[in-house]
Structure formats: structure tokens, C-alpha cells
Design goal:
This protein has helices spanning 7-36, 87-96, 107-136, 153-157, 176-184, 242-268, 280-292, 301-327, 335-348, 354-382, 385-393; strands spanning 40-55, 61-75, 138-140, 145-148, 164-168, 171-172, 191-197, 200-206, 209-214, 220-225, 228-230, 236-238. By secondary structure, it is an alpha+beta fold. Among the domains are: 2-37 and 105-133 and 322-393, no CATH class; 138-238, Pdz3 Domain. The longest helix has 30 residues, at 7-36. The protein is elongated and about 75 Å long.
């Protein structure tokens, strides 16, 4: 647990990143609601005691609460932060002829408003990646193999020195880091690689194994490995104009989405490693480590701080993609669950019954809480808390 005990910098870094992501997500819902005629009662960042509040001219209460570990937009007609319908309020509004309640809008409008949150998360990532690429460019090591570890998955698949990997798992790769990212989440599952060898293009099929490595926090994790080393001493630098930066930022966001979907799919099938499934504690630790790590070879404190902020914003973009995807899971309470309800309504011409919706929200809440508990226990194991407790009683 040593990595998560550095309090001031870690807490500020976590609050900055998480508040930014939540604000972006909820702003997506809010802007779509305003554009499509749904009244918003509350826009909240965080939970708990209110630290700040203001009501705008449209009657929306804007508030910032003590614990910035989430947020919500509460529409008129919602019974709470999860956007479960307040059926009594809806019936009263129908009798009064009010049409600005979210749940009385046509299903296509509600679907757009709900989907706008995750979409804004993805858009935010594209914008951040594009700005960073346009501002700083990129530096990467080519995906050319310098050596192959004997008896490794790569050796068994037929990889050779000087092979240039140009495609992995159906994706074009431009650097060795791209290959490492794909392989790290593909343990125990076959992956197709396209390589250039002596002027020819060939396809190789490898099954990455599991290997223990030390992550940036100093803890041991198990990730997929191939058993190849990159050619050292060769770094390619690339600058980006506005259009190229947007294209590369969009590609990076899409690759992040597909990587996370594949990772979740492999976990469901029993492959991969749950070591890479982090919860709130690990997110807190990573954001804190990024936000407090000293910048190498930088003497100026102001430059070092600027670099930390840039790194935190880049991390926020990556986490924003994850938050967007999680919210699209077809689980009631989440945005994806609402979209599932609306799909049923669009097909049948009528919404689910009140009882079915309430049961769905309860089941969805139980699933989300179970996932949070599992992720937290996984974090505690990752930080070695269980081993520490065992040593106390041994």
C-alpha cells in the first residue's frame, strides 16, 4: 500500500483527473438535453455535502460536492441520480400538459441524450490526443525485432531477427509500443501478425504467454508477452499538422476502445489476466504517481509542473475512453441500460412496465456494486494488503 499513501499530491491529482472526466461526461448529457428540449434540474460534480451551488436562469442547480468520485445530471422527471423515472411526477406532468420532462420526450431524443455522455468522453479523448500530438509530436521505436528469446511464444511462431511487424491482431502498428500494447492483453489467445522479412510479407500466428513484470507503481503484475526485443538506438520522431493530428488522435482513441473491448471479452471467456483489471484504488494510485513523479532532466520547477499536468491530461483522456465504454454496458443504471430500455420501447412501441424497470434498476445496481467490490478486492491483492494481513497473524 506504500504507493497510495502519499496524500496531498495523490489526492489533488486524482481529484483533478476524475473531476475532469466526470464533468466531460455529464456535460455531454447536459448539452444534448438542452438542445433537445429536456429540462435539467441538477448538474452535480461529486457526492456528499455541497461545497458550491448556483441556479441558472433555466432553473438548473449547478453544484460541486465534497467527494469528486462521480457526478450526475438529474433531469426533470427523474427520481434520483440514476435517472430512474419518477412515475408519479411523470403522471402529474402529463395531466398538466408539460412536455419538457425527459421521460416524455420521443424515444429517439432520449436515446441521443443518454448516448451523448459516453460520446463526449470519446470526443474529449480525440481532442486531447490531437492537441498533444500537434503540440509535441511523437517519438517511437520501430517495430523491428532485434532478437527473439529462445523457446518463447515468438520463437515457436517463427519470428526472426530483423522482422518488421506491420500488423498485429488485425491492426496496423507503427511502433514497438503498439505491439507491446496489443500483446499485453492477449495472453493465452492466438494473435495473427503480419511481418516484412527480406522484402516479403508473411503472416505468423503466436499465442502470447503470461509473464510477471514490475509496473510503474513497483508492483508485480502478470501480462501477455511474446519474447521479442526491439532494435535499440533507433527512435523515429514525427511532427503533426492539425489534420494529421486529428486523424492520429482519432485512431489512438479507436485503438483504445477496441483494446478495452477485446480485454473485457477475453476476461469473460476466461483468458487474459485479472491483474490488469484495476478499480478505484489503482486509478487513485496511478493518477497520483503521474501527478507527483519528478520529470527527468528538468531543473525548472515550473517546467516540471507543466509536464506533470500534461501527463495527467493524457491519462485523463485514456481514462475517459474507459469511462465511456463502461457506461455503455447494457446494465440498468448505466447509460447502456437506459439505451437497452429505449431499444425495447422502439421495437414494441411501448416502454417496459414500471415494475420491470424498477426490478432492472435494482439488478443493475447490484451488478455494479458487485463489480466495484471485485475490483477493489483485486486492488487490495495487487497492493499486497492480503499478504500483509497474513503476516500479521502468522
Amino acid at each position: 500500500m506504500q504507493a497510495i499513501i502519499h496524500t496531498p499530491g495523490f489526492i489533488l491529482s486524482f481529484a483533478f483527473v476524475f473531476t475532469l472526466i466526470v464533468f466531460v461526461h455529464e456535460m455531454g448529457h447536459f448539452l444534448a438535453a438542452r438542445a433537445l428540449g429536456a429540462k435539467v434540474d441538477v448538474f452535480s460534480i461529486g457526492f456528499g455535502k455541497r461545497l458550491f451551488q448556483r441556479t441558472d436562469r433555466y432553473g438548473t442547480l449547478w453544484q460541486v460536492s465534497l467527494f469528486p468520485i462521480g457526478g450526475f445530471v438529474k433531469f426533470a422527471g427523474d427520481s434520483g441520480a440514476a435517472s430512474a423515472p419518477d412515475f408519479e411526477a411523470i403522471k402529474a406532468a402529463q395531466s398538466d400538459g408539460k412536455a419538457n420532462l425527459f421521460h416524455l420526450l420521443p424515444v429517439w431524443r432520449r436515446s441521443i441524450i443518454v448516448a451523448a455522455g459516453p460520446i463526449m468522453n470519446f470526443f474529449f479523448a480525440i481532442v486531447i490526443f490531437s492537441i498533444l500530438l500537434m503540440s509535441f509530436g511523437s517519438a517511437s521505436i520501430p517495430a523491428r525485432i532485434d532478437s527473439v528469446e529462445p523457446n518463447s511464444p515468438a520463437a515457436l511462431a517463427g519470428f526472426m531477427k530483423d522482422d518488421l511487424i506491420i500488423e498485429a491482431d488485425g491492426r496496423k502498428v507503427k511502433s514497438f509500443a503498439d505491439v507491446a500494447a496489443i500483446v499485453s492483453i492477449a495472453a493465452n489467445e492466438p494473435v495473427n501478425f503480419v511481418v516484412k522479412r527480406a522484402g516479403e510479407t508473411i503472416t505468423l500466428r503466436a499465442v502470447p504467454g503470461l509473464v510477471e513484470q514490475t509496473d510503474p507503481l513497483g508492483n508485480t503484475i502478470r501480462i501477455g508477452y511474446l519474447g521479442i526485443r526491439a532494435t535499440t538506438g533507433v527512435v523515429e520522431h514525427q511532427r503533426y499538422g492539425p489534420l494529421a493530428a486529428v486523424a492520429a488522435g482519432t485512431s489512438k482513441t479507436w485503438n483504445s476502445i477496441t483494446d478495452q473491448l477485446k480485454f473485457m471479452g477475453r476476461l469473460v471467456r476466461g483468458h487474459g489476466s485479472v491483474d490488469m483489471l484495476g478499480g478505484p484504488l489503482r486509478i487513485f494510485a496511478y493518477t497520483g504517481a503521474v501527478g507527483t513523479a519528478p520529470a527527468a532532466d528538468v531543473q525548472s520547477a515550473s517546467v516540471s509542473l507543466a509536464l506533470r499536468i500534461v501527463n495527467l491530461i493524457n491519462l485523463a483522456a485514456l481514462l475517459s475512453v474507459a469511462i465511456g465504454l463502461v457506461n455503455l454496458l447494457p446494465v440498468p443504471v448505466l447509460d447502456g441500460g437506459h439505451l437497452l430500455y429505449y431499444a425495447f420501447e422502439a421495437v414494441t412501441g411501448k416502454p417496459l412496465s414500471e415494475n420491470m424497470q424498477l426490478v432492472g434498476f435494482k439488478v443493475g445496481l447490484a451488478l455494479i456494486l458487485s463489480l466495484m467490490v471485485f475490483a477493489t478486492l483485486n486492488d487490495l491483492r495487487y497492493f499486497g494488503l492480503f499478504e500483509s494481513i497474513g503476516r500479521l497473524f502468522s
